[in-house]
Amino acid sequence: MNDLTQTNGVQWRNTHERYGAVSIALHWTIVLLFLGLYGLAYSVKYTTGYDSEMGELHLYLHKPIGVSVLALALVRVWWRSVNIEPPLPAAMPNSHKLMAHWTHMALYAIMFVQPLAGMAMDIFRARPVKILDVSIFPAVMERNDFLAEHFADMVHNDYMDWIIALVVAAHAGAALKHHIIDRDDVLTRMLPAWAGGKRT
């Protein structure tokens, strides 16, 4: 087998039976980044406040994590394009397969829209986008507070919070249903072997 398929017993590429190590690593890394970001954001918002040391830490880490999610999402889309996707169970109703497809598309949209909306908040305020004090995108337009507040800010901080909560709940709930009720391998094939994931 070539190096991109399997080395030292590690299955890198996806197979018809399960996701490979790269897809699994990308999936769970993005999950952990989202959980860390939102956990820190809500703890600051509802407990310490943004003027606290925790608030300053959140603001300092917020953009690097968001841009990391965007970068990993790009890698994930590319990796998906050069890999096969393990098929859903044959016994699964077509309506459920359609819902699963659109839920996945919504998750991919979230991975792009949320960080881009955050970056747009700076761009519309005529500020460069900075990551850990390093500018990664220059100020390219005059300040437009209307777009910053009524488009980017509302999308990033208001609408997307609810959309993310609903889509993630649907995705996680469906995965648990497959594991607990349907007793198929939909969940385990996205888990690493050490966490009980399905082996090829």
Give structural notes.
The chain is mainly alpha-helical and 200 residues long. It has helices spanning 21-48, 53-81, 94-124, 145-182, and strands spanning 6-7, 10-11, 129-131, 134-137. The chain has a single domain, classed as Fumarate Reductase Cytochrome B subunit, CATH 1.20.950. Helix content is 63%, strand content 6%. Strands 1-2 form a two-stranded antiparallel sheet. A two-stranded antiparallel ribbon has the order 3-4. α1 (21-48) packs antiparallel against α2 and α2 packs across α3. The longest helix has 38 residues, at 145-182. The mean pLDDT is 89.
Q: Total number of helical segments?
A: 4
Measured distance between first and last alpha carbons: 14 Å
Strand order of the largest sheet: 1-2
As a whole number of angstroms, the C-alpha radius of gyration is: 19 Å
Overall 3D geometry? Answer: elongated
Strand content: 5-15%
**Order of helices and strands, N to C?**
EEHHHEEH
Class by SSE composition: mainly alpha
**What integer is the average pLDDT?**
89
List the domain count as a whole number. Answer: 1
Helix content: 55-70%
Number of strands: 4
CATH C-level name: Mainly Alpha
Sketch the major β-sheet: 2 strands, antiparallel
**CATH architecture name:** Up-down Bundle
